[in-house]
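WARN no homologs supplied; continuing
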Amino acid sequence: MALPRGKGCLSCTTVLWYITFVGCGVNYMIRSNINIAIVAMVKKRPSDGSAVASECYHSDFNLTGNYSLNESLSQVELIDVDDEIRFDWDEHQQSVVMGAFFWLYWATQVPAGMMAQYFGSKKVFGIGNLMVSITTLLIPLSASLDYRALVTLRAFQGVCGGFCFPSLSYIISRWIPTNERGKFMSAFMGSSVGAALTFPLCGMIIHFLNWQAVFYITGAIGILWFIGWWYLVYDNPVDHPRISESELQHIQNAIGDTISEKKLPIPWFKILTSWPLIVNLLLAWGCIWGMFTILTQAPTYFRNVHGWSVQKVGFFSGLPHVCRTSFAIIVGYVCDHLLSSGKLSVTAVRKLAGFITNILQGIFMLGLAFSGCNSVMATICLTAALTVSGAETSGSLATYIDLSPNFAGVLMGIGNMICVTPGFLSAAVVGALTYKNQSSEQWKKIFLISAGILLPPGFLHLLRSSSEVQEWNFPKSLAKELKHDISAKDVEAQQRLTSEHETEDHQNTEEKQNHIL
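OK structure emitted
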């Protein structure tokens, strides 16, 4: 964030990056905490002889000392000792619990972008995150009532969480110039850091406390973040009381007249039929499918296929997210340098990022599919696949704002509405393919499906995408107003110039007369 700074403090843009980064982390911490907590929430169901266990299974799986291990010649079974605080949910019920967050998450995406135009990102993003944080405190209670009560609560959390990410595009379009957008968009990778911290943090909480504490602690963290967000963030640079004149001028000069402060009519038909947007949506959908498959299923995969303990699952499930965030920041700086130096156009830079997010991720997903019982190879491929997906901040996410700064919230809302479907579809696919069958062969099918979804849109984006500002960014009515304003200013300037010349001529005439006298 190399912008001019006020004396003795961080620049307001830098503060905005950090608080946005943490906010994205809080959002993903709360949506993914159940993915690791469910390992301790659910009883190990005794085998009825029909379930197929993984041939890769090792006996280091031990949940916080509450399970005793019985080994037989045929299989390894875990016998639950602490029945009263665990639930007898099968694979289908577990997948429903984990996927319920995304059932209605899509419904608030477009409204979120529209609401941000009227109320600003501060209110929409802040209150959305606050509601998700408060409701997570109720998860232990709802789980104890019935798994369907928990599903209902998770679905409501999805509604609240859906308001968050699309609303951020409003504040980004007003604070961040195009050639600095890649660096700033890395703030979205706070989501990966949140997930990365969640897995080991929740593993430790479960080990030393209990699974209920996971939701109480993460919910409290979210509420504390909201307090900081509310007092530190302003939607427009000009409204910020602590911004320096140099930073404000830098932002205003760099953004120029691509942003209108007027409430513009949304050109729905042109947006929905925009080929650059459609290609970008396909790219994002494929990337999100791969990312969500790993994000939500990595703990279950390592637990059931490789037999890892909850502490080990927590650590190695969180590691890829740290790598993803670091990679996103590096790619952001590289892409911004290529833009500002003029070495690549905006479209070429976004194509490069799209190649990384989908094509490289698809290749690593293929490696994961064929890793079999090799846990080292599986860890490497899974980590690499999630790492390269971090380039989406410089690719599909930045493209929404590139295509239309004025309607970026609407575009991102449409994108998130469509791209949320992998959240529950991938969970449903995993649940169906692994029901009573946790063999590596079934998980191979899951990863092959993910690779097949990643690669085609990656190649399409490479060949047919564009990230230039679209003509419908300014509706015709506004263009006429702008033209009229410019013409009025030209007339005013011409009149002022004429008046100045007349004054000068009058003064010269007086001087000549005085000289003659």
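The chain has two domains: 12-46+63-254+277-473, 481-517.
OK
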